[in-house]
């Protein structure tokens, strides 16, 4: 899904084996009233910064999975300003479009992404994975609309990751991993600052909405 950091990259650029291997460097611990202490870690894969957020919460994996795959509802519970968030494919599939309103103070353009998600759950462990695909061929009308209505918006050319919700005695262990190059003219310091802030915010948003639905 979502949530954010979000020259034309091709589908299949994700390297899941590399994401599962190697060491992560803890960069910050974010305290959340709703989710607890969220540990954010960093590593690089092929020159791309990948972040991992991890926390244990008292919510079931099924409830958390239902929230992250509820694409149309995302603007209602996200702490980021999503101007659009909609499913594109048939019911039961996860091809979706989201448009992020980037604050003016950053002097950066809005960001948008069109992604294909997959349910990669294994038994009681619920997993949602996403990556880019050749969406302009699949959805030419959407491509024309974005060009006409949001010509200055930037599509990140690297955007893949996953949510994993593993059951525990009291709820779930959440691991959220995101590999993303936001593109455009954002300086590196701003990219890192934004990433280490938005990742725990995204986790807290999901947990808050999941608890509301319980």
Descriptive account of the structure:
There is one protein chain. The protein has helices at 16-20, 61-68, 74-77, 135-138, 140-149, 188-213, and strands at 25-32, 36-45, 48-57, 82-87, 94-100, 111-119, 126-132, 158-167, 172-181. The protein has 214 residues and is of the alpha+beta class. Helices cover 27% and strands 36% of the residues. Mean pLDDT is 87; it is low at 1-12. It is globular. The two termini are 21 Å apart. The chain has a 9-stranded antiparallel beta sheet with strand order 1-2-3-9-8-7-6-5-4, with helices on one face. The chain has a single domain (24-213), classed as Alpha-D-Glucose-1,6-Bisphosphate, Chain A, domain 4. Helix 2 (61-68) crosses helix 6.
Key traits:
214 residues, alpha+beta, Alpha-D-Glucose-1,6-Bisphosphate, Chain A, domain 4, globular
Short description:
The protein is of the alpha+beta class and 214 residues long. The protein has helices spanning 16-20, 61-68, 74-77, 135-138, 140-149, 188-213, and strands at 25-32, 36-45, 48-57, 82-87, 94-100, 111-119, 126-132, 158-167, 172-181. Helix 2 packs across helix 6 (188-213).
Detail the topology: elements first, then pairings.
Layout: H1 16-20, E1 25-32, E2 36-45, E3 48-57, H2 61-68, H3 74-77, E4 82-87, E5 94-100, E6 111-119, E7 126-132, H4 135-138, H5 140-149, E8 158-167, E9 172-181, H6 188-213
Antiparallel strand pairs: 1-2, 2-3, 3-9, 4-5, 5-6, 6-7, 7-8, 8-9
Work out the strand percent. Answer: 35-45%
Order of helices and strands: HEEEHHEEEEHHEEH
Give the terminus-to-terminus CA distance.
21 Å
The parts where pLDDT drops under 50 for at least 5 residues are 1-12
